[in-house]
């Protein structure tokens, strides 16, 4: 029987470029809260934003809407890590939807989808 | 790590608007904000009134708590003077003492040079609503960096209009080229709550403007803090801040009240 080595040495694992995709949880805040978009309309809206800021090359950036909750206007987006800055900046600078002001609130960004399940910012301690 | 700050929230007389702005800023994670009063003197009216800042408790009943922290948001007052003529900026005017931060927006090359090297201010605003009428030169910018003055780029014009977007990015990129990314702050010039963006969103925008990763994050946190400390030292005559262990006190030269700066008459 092999003796179990009781000395556990500290082991550090560093992952570089661990995940090819980045995941973003975003919430669309509209001036008029009763307005609702379908998933297709949302994707078209984001592509328009990309086109306005980064042109045709930006609009060609492949991103997916993985989950969309129409009631709360919260979406889970996935994009290649190389396109994260472009997508994020076009979401930030997107200002109006059909002539009313809007704002994209980015709630979480992570290279791992599992990290998006828990959000310490929305933790209620009381 | 320094806390996130947004040093440019436009003042409006509408109380609900300001309170909504402050609540949204606290919800997004900004620990300190500054309400900006713009003052644009024209040569037609020689002695216009410099606006007086409203006390904070008139603007909002109870300061909202910053998300993720236990303290309420800290609100400061700031004055921006849009100078188009050298006589517009009056050094050591007593009205300036009511404001915590002092900013200047120069509109010509000479005024920009004067603002960088001579004026007693904390922030130099780079205009984003028009193409810059002058080019940045390394010499005055390095002089300003040595003195501790920061350069400010506002991003809410980029949200409102696509032509402004081009000007914002162009002017910001030429600024970062000349100053190598040091002493830059990014702030909204938000009039509505929907024009505010979270601190990490602004950090990402900084990458678009040509700042490096570290510089972009500093533009929202530690450089803003540096500007605030510079403003505190500017208010005192001797230029140092001493914190008492019992209470906060700024240094005094002699006597009880801090020595006010006076224009040299000799």
TrEMBL record, chain A:
A Pfam family recorded for this sequence: RNase_P_Rpp14
Name the Gene Ontology biological process terms: tRNA 5'-leader removal
Per UniProt, what is one GO molecular function of this protein?
A: ribonuclease P RNA binding
One of the record's GO cellular component terms: nucleolus
Q: Which UniProt keywords apply?
A: tRNA processing
InterPro entries per record:
Pop5/Rpp14/Rnp2-like, Rnp2-like_sf
Provide the family line.
Answer: Belongs to the eukaryotic/archaeal RNase P protein component 2 family.
Q: What is this protein called?
A: Ribonuclease P/MRP subunit p14
TrEMBL record, chain B:
GO CC terms: nucleolar ribonuclease P complex; ribosome
Q: Keyword check for rRNA processing, yes or no.
A: yes
Q: Domain of life of the organism in this record?
A: Eukaryota
**InterPro entries named in the record:** Pol/histidinol_Pase-like (IPR016195), Ribosomal_uS2_CS (IPR018130), RNase_P_p30 (IPR002738)
One GO BP annotation is: rRNA processing
Q: Where does it primarily localize?
A: nucleus
Its localization reads: Nucleus, Nucleolus
| UniProt keyword terms in alphabetical order | Acetylation, Nucleus, Phosphoprotein, rRNA processing, tRNA processing
Pfam families cross-referenced by the UniProt entry: RNase_P_p30
Which GO molecular function terms does the record list? Answer: RNA binding; structural constituent of ribosome
* Subunit relationships: Component of nuclear RNase P and RNase MRP ribonucleoproteins. RNase P consists of a catalytic RNA moiety and about 10 protein subunits; POP1, POP4, POP5, POP7, RPP14, RPP21, RPP25, RPP30, RPP38 and RPP40. Within the RNase P complex, POP1, POP7 and RPP25 form the 'finger' subcomplex, POP5, RPP14, RPP40 and homodimeric RPP30 form the 'palm' subcomplex, and RPP21, POP4 and RPP38 form the 'wrist' subcomplex. All subunits of the RNase P complex interact with the catalytic RNA. Several subunits of RNase P are also part of the RNase MRP complex.
Tell me, in a sentence or two, what this protein's role is: Component of ribonuclease P, a ribonucleoprotein complex that generates mature tRNA molecules by cleaving their 5'-ends. Also a component of the MRP ribonuclease complex, which cleaves pre-rRNA sequences.
Q: Which family does it belong to?
A: Belongs to the eukaryotic/archaeal RNase P protein component 3 family.
Please identify the protein, giving its name as recorded.
Answer: Ribonuclease P protein subunit p30
Specify the species. Oryzias sinensis (Chinese medaka)
């Amino acid at each position: 029987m092999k003796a179990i080595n009781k000395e556990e040495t500290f082991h550090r694992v560093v992952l570089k470029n661990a995940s090819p995709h980045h995941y973003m949880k975003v919430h669309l805040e509209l001036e008029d809260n009763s307005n609702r978009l379908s998933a297709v309309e949302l994707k078209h809206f984001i592509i328009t934003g990309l086109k306005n800021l980064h042109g045709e090359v930006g609009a060609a950036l492949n991103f997916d809407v993985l989950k969309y909750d129409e009631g709360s206007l919260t979406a889970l987006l996935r994009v290649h890590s190389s396109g994260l800055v472009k997508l994020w900046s076009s979401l930030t600078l997107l200002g109006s939807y059909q002539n009313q002001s809007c704002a994209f609130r980015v709630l979480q960004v992570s290279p791992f989808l599992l990290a998006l399940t828990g959000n310490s910012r929305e933790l209620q301690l009381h | 790590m320094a806390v996130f700050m947004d040093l440019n929230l436009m003042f409006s007389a509408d109380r609900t608007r300001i309170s909504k702005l402050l609540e949204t800023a606290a919800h997004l994670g900004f620990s300190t904000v500054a309400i900006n009063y713009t003052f644009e003197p024209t040569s037609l009216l020689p002695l216009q009134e410099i606006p007086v800042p409203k006390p904070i408790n008139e603007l909002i009943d109870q300061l909202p708590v910053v998300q993720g922290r236990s303290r309420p948001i800290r609100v400061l007052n700031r004055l921006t003077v849009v100078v188009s003529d050298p006589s517009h900026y009056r050094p050591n005017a007593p009205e300036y003492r009511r404001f915590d931060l002092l900013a200047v927006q120069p509109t010509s090359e000479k005024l920009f040079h004067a603002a960088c090297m001579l004026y007693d201010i904390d922030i130099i605003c780079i205009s984003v609503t028009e193409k810059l009428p002058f080019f940045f030169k390394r010499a005055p910018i390095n002089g300003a960096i040595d003195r501790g003055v920061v350069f400010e780029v506002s991003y809410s014009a980029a949200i409102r209009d696509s032509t402004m977007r081009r000007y914002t990015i162009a002017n910001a990129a030429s600024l970062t080229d000349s100053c190598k990314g040091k002493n830059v702050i990014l702030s909204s010039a938000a009039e509505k709550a929907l024009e505010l963006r979270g601190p990490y969103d602004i950090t990402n925008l900084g990458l678009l403007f040509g700042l490096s990763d570290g510089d972009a994050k500093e533009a929202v946190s530690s450089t803003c803090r540096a500007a605030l400390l510079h403003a505190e030292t500017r208010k005192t005559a001797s230029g140092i801040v001493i914190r008492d262990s019992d209470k906060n006190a700024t240094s005094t030269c002699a006597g009880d009240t801090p020595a006010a700066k006076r224009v040299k008459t000799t």
